[in-house]
Design a protein that fits this description.
The complex is a heterodimer of chains A (349) and B (666). By secondary structure, chain A is α/β, with parallel strands linked by helices. Chain A has helices at residues 38-51, 99-103, 153-157, 170-180, 184-194, 200-221, 231-241, 243-256, 262-266, 284-288, 315-319, 341-347; strands at 26-33, 55-59, 70-78, 91-96, 109-118, 148-151, 269-274, 294-296, 302-304, 325-330, 337-338. Chain A has 12 helices and 11 strands. Chain B has 24 helices and 22 strands. In chain B, helix 9 links the parallel strand 6 (179-180) and strand 7. The longest helix of chain B is centred in the middle third of the chain and has 22 residues, at 245-266. The chains are: A alpha/beta (349), B alpha/beta (666). Chains A and B meet through helix 1, strand 2, helix 2, strand 5 and helix 9 of A and helix 1, strand 8, strand 10, helix 13 and helix 16 of B.
Amino acid sequence: MASNQRGRNVMSNGNGGENVASARSGNLVLGGVGGQGIITASNTISYVCIEAGLNVKKSEVHGMSQRGGAVVSHLRYGPEVHSVILEPGQAEWILGFEWEEGLRYLEYLKPGGVAFVSTERRIPPSAQVDRLGGKINYALDLVPPIGVVPVDTYRITGKAAVERTASAQTVLLGALSVEMGLPVEFWHKAIEATVPPKTIKANLLSFENGRSWYEEWKGSVVPGHNTSSHSEDFSNRSNNQHRAGASRLKKIGDSSEAGISISSWMGGIPRVEIMRDWCKGCNICVSVCPERVLSIDQHEIAVVSEPDRCTGCGLCARLCPDLAIDILLDAAIGDEPVPSLAKKRGDSR
Amino acid sequence: MKKGIEATMEVKPGLVAHNGHEDVDERHRNGAEPAGKSVKHGPAENTSLYAGLLSGNEAIALATWHSGAGMAVGYPGTPSTETLEYLAKITSASDIYVEWSTNEKVAMDVAMGASLAGDRVLVTTKHVGLNVAMDSFMTSPFIGVNGGVVILDADDPGMHSSQNEQDNRYLARFAGIPMLEPSDSQEAYEFTRTAFELSEKWDTPVMLRMTTRVSHSRSKVIPEPMQSPKKGEFHRDQRKYVMLPANARARHVSHLDRLSKMEQWAEEVSFNSEEMRSSLVGVVTSGISYQYVRDVLPEASVFKLGLTFPVPKEKLRSFARKVDRLFVVEELEPYLKEEMAIFGLVAEGAALFPRNGELSPRLVREGFQKAGVLEVTKEPALPVGTQSVPAVGPRFPLLCSGCSHATPFFLLRKFDAVVAGDIGCYTLGATEPLASMDTCLSMGSSIGIAIGLAKAGRTGGRPVVAVLGDSTFLHAGIPPLIDAVHREANITVVVLDNGTTAMTGGQPHPATSSGIRGQSAPKVDIPAICSAVGVSQVIVVDPYDVGATSMALQNAISKDGVSVVITARSCVESPVKSRGRIYHVDTSQCDGCQLCMNLGCPALGWDFSLDIMPKRITIDAALCSGCTVCAQICPQGAILSADSETDGYRNSPSCLVSINDSVQRG
């Protein structure tokens, strides 16, 4: 990017154009979900750089992020550091503590850079809102883009994923330490100084596991591996390495990629029928409907105001004290109602 | 806490200034640790107290202590909060009085009082917090100081956690007080120490203006020797301290006189620096923008302003003469550009850099590309291959699993109330799936807005409810509650009392029984306050009991006049992380009705191991706090704890029935 043909009034660009990371300077982006230890990990890396006699600056965003939202920290080190936040395309390394949160910041990756992304997936509730079709708004696909190294942190450190042990994520630091090239003793010292005292042992173990896993993995791709010229191999290799994980995830992905129509799993399109003469406007059905399909009209009678949202759960019909509600199934094509809802739902269990 | 401090000492004794070092060690050895160590009313242990890498806020706290200040007060607000927490952590009660105030105005007044008694004082606030303190803030330079007063004002460009992004540099100019703007943690340290001296030199409070990026970035800080605390004494001086019109007129004259002297002095200060490099481009900048300019245009000449009010006219004029093109790079409003325009110095910049949002190296680069200073790069911004990255969906902040605020919002949506909301974690009640908040304006505004809505009376027959947290209620909710009682407004006020200031990380407030150091403190009684101002119906209810909460809300809403419902249940994360029995879903019972998903609990999600529709629910055991709310509302009784199966006990949908009972009564 640094230009040699500067015009009279045109200046050269600042850093960020250099493609080669030296051991003495570097830029990182750490992404994850609040509570995963992103800030602690960035502290550990900072400590290592300070041990190496380098200047460090890092950013943190608190506030709304600590309530389960996305957390990101930029970290820069070198003999002299000015801006604390990076421009896209400046990071040598990305650490993703959660699958999608790692992919989110890929635009910051330099060509030839490496993104270590944990395969831990935390699908946010906001991605699970298509109750009729079951579609998930989440990048489930484990075929990694170029430059991404998927890291099955829990498997590598021998922990069960359901336990969500934060120390498992230190595997990412182990892998990173191989690329950053600063002395490994600095890392040990940094981990001891920055993680909660009770977890030092577990974190050191994860670190070593991550380090040896990545060394082995890297060596098995191409001897004397260079990430920038073999990024194709990177993605292929990672697929093989993670075949088991990938197939498991893929299965989930299959049912959710496009979503499916409600009639295909219900056997028809559910329709709420309210017998107006029997309804006394008690509001029970309105208050229990999970999809907020019903409302009370100006005559104090329940009406179906959002028919398209009905999932046919039948809660309103079961709780109606006046037996005024029926759920019918309309055939998807054709007009003959199929009044066998309860049985259908029983079958689908 | 102890561990963290000691680790620091071993790593780099330099963190704590030279004569303060032994004191701290001594204190920890003597076990004079603040009481209530198990209670996390303060920063988490082992955060990043190491190796002198401090955040901007921590640097200010350290400098405040090293300046010999006797007091530091404020109200929590992102991004200023960590300053007092860190100060309380590195000092003991005998070193310095550190405490949260009920609101920013109280803090400002307490600070002025302590200053007149001779203490150096730090006041911390976020940008909108200074609006609350504005009344005292504007007149404070008239009264002046005895001990130095430094106001840490932390602006939030980009609104990471704020309701607006006002640029408070205008407020320093408005009040006519000196303003310093650090650009990293080392400067935050140095400028704080200078600010105390300036405050005493000019007999006025001084503003230390920070932004999120400076407050929340960490970089190396090399401290200076500690100054021993300076203790003055209060001396009566009515002409200076009593702002009767006759006195205030004279003080205004002195204030204006000081302003013109400060303008002269601004020419000589050492924290404005001219960095001459290429003469093609000159950039006037300050704060974090300076760092961006240095990265993007390493060859450009830069005039870096450390003092942004008053600005040095002659210095800037002379800089302008030395460069071919003059630019101003600043975040948010064109403040510097306007200041320069006043004395006829026209700079480029306003059309090149955005006036809203947070500045970034990328935006600075794009601005200089637009100006023709930098070539437009032809390479794609994205590295090769990343175009194939699947679209990543948004990840919104959520109420925590087991949050005691979920139930009231879940129910308010059912009651179809018009809900005037407020500032806090519970503002997330506005987002799906709870989605039951209609307004949110400023701290404590909910009650006033509810009065207005109810008095105007055109809410389509929907009941009017104000919802605010406990800390917010004490901060600015009491005067409007008095108004509601006196004006007989037909509203229901819901105080979500979780016993902490949760949004900013769990700070104590007057209705908690501890102070910032964890020491015990008298507790203010919120129900008694409500009764005392004349609310006839005050109900305290446990929001983990869905049926009871539903009844309480229904009773309150159906009643004429002002009623208050206090949902009392301590925050699930603070002061202690509370975890009860973990619940799970019996998939043979769950019929996928999704009612529990309407709680918006992060522990609830679809069970992807079952390939059936509708999606059955599963509970993430690592996240479940055992609050039981989902189990109470499940119509199938499908949500169970490990114990409920061995006991042969299953939750019946009894709670739904009680919800319905209350609905029917209404």
